[in-house]
Amino acid sequence: MLKPAVLWGSSLTFAVIATIMTAQHRFRYHDETTTRPLILQPATIDPGVSYVDLTEAKNRVSVSANGIPDHLVGRFPNRGNPHSLSEQRVNLSVPAHPKPSRTPKPLELGWNFGVSIDGVVFDPLAVEYWNGDPRSGWSYNALGGAISLGLDENHAHVQPGGKYHYHGIPTGLIELLKYTPTRHSPLVGYAADGFPIYAMTGIEDGNVTQMTSSCQLKNGNRRGGSAPDGKFDGTFNEDYVYRAGTGNLDECNGGFTVSPEYPYGTYAYFLTENYPVIPRCFTGTPDDSYRFGRR
Fold it and tell me: What is the pTM of this model?
């Protein structure tokens, strides 16, 4: 049994830092400024044999996997995603007894937020910018629907190297785990800093509670000109702002909960139905193994 972590909170304003991964990356041009309903690929394809091994030794939790999910996926390639799903070498490690840092660390491009218990990573950021320019400061929300990313019903798709990864709630996985909103979420995975990840329900004051983000849409309209115009509607990550107390989770989509895995309580992250769905910052220190290309 992993030891529980301590409860921690902060008033730091929520931020998403979009970092250019390489100077040579060719960004796609987009000028869409309005959110649209997501069109998800039906998850009807067997992706192959899933392998994952989670072990705890020497105060570390290690995950070894082939990146193949243990549930059906959409058809890849598809119209919005030209890549084929393939096995990966997933080798990740986190502290078994994570500790909070003094200040939260924003999730940057080039990092996975965490890994699911079926060995598929959570990678919520998309390398898609308004006018194809990272310097604009306007990054597209992968779940905003303004641009097609070919996501399947697990809110996942495939990177050029074949990596299948989750941008939102992994529907097929939580169904396999028999998730129900009437009890505490089953363990879904571990974040890069070692804190556990659960789905939409936790325990507060002894009661099963729907966990809700404190990120809200900004009021009014974008300024236009050198920035997009239109209403703050969720097309861009920058349409949102963290407003403490508007939900029951902190700026990193985390909070204190008591779960079967942590009967004495722990700080944990939650996947939420409202933005950001997958957290965008770390309460603890993320392990360097979660950087891209170092799995």
Answer: 0.89
